[in-house]
């Protein structure tokens, strides 16, 4: 079963594009929530992560902040990473 992946991003964020590209390279389907104009989603993200930055990636309930390719890849394939 594939992991549920949601990436919270901004359209002007180069690091967000790096996470998107990694998911494409891993052939991992994901939902991309661009928070630029989705204020409610932005506040939900802040409430969940206590962070103001993007990208924030949720893989089966595990939050990974920023571009951490090793953790992201491990979470996609194993579903097991240490929380950051």
Describe the structure.
The protein has three helices and four strands; from the N terminus they run E-H-E-H-E-E-H. With 84 residues, it is an alpha+beta fold. The protein has a single domain, classed as Glutaredoxin. Strands 2-1-3-4 form a four-stranded mixed sheet, with helices on both faces. Strand 1 (5-9), helix 1 (14-25) and strand 2 form a beta-alpha-beta unit. The termini are far apart. The mean pLDDT is 92.
Count up the domains: 1
Mean pLDDT: 92
The name CATH uses for the topology is: Glutaredoxin
**What CATH architecture label applies?**
3-Layer(aba) Sandwich
Radius of gyration: 12 Å
CATH class: Alpha Beta
Largest sheet: 4 strands, mixed
Per CATH, the superfamily is Glutaredoxin
- Secondary-structure-based class equals alpha+beta
Order of helices and strands: EHEHEEH
Describe the secondary-structure layout.
Elements: E1 5-9, H1 14-25, E2 31-34, H2 39-49, E3 56-59, E4 62-65, H3 69-77
Parallel strand pairs: 1-2
Antiparallel strand pairs: 1-3, 3-4
Characteristics of this structure?
84 residues, 3 helices, alpha+beta, Glutaredoxin, 38% helix, four-stranded mixed β-sheet
Provide a concise account of the structure shown:
The chain has 84 residues and is an alpha+beta fold. It contains three helices and four strands; from the N terminus they run βαβαββα.
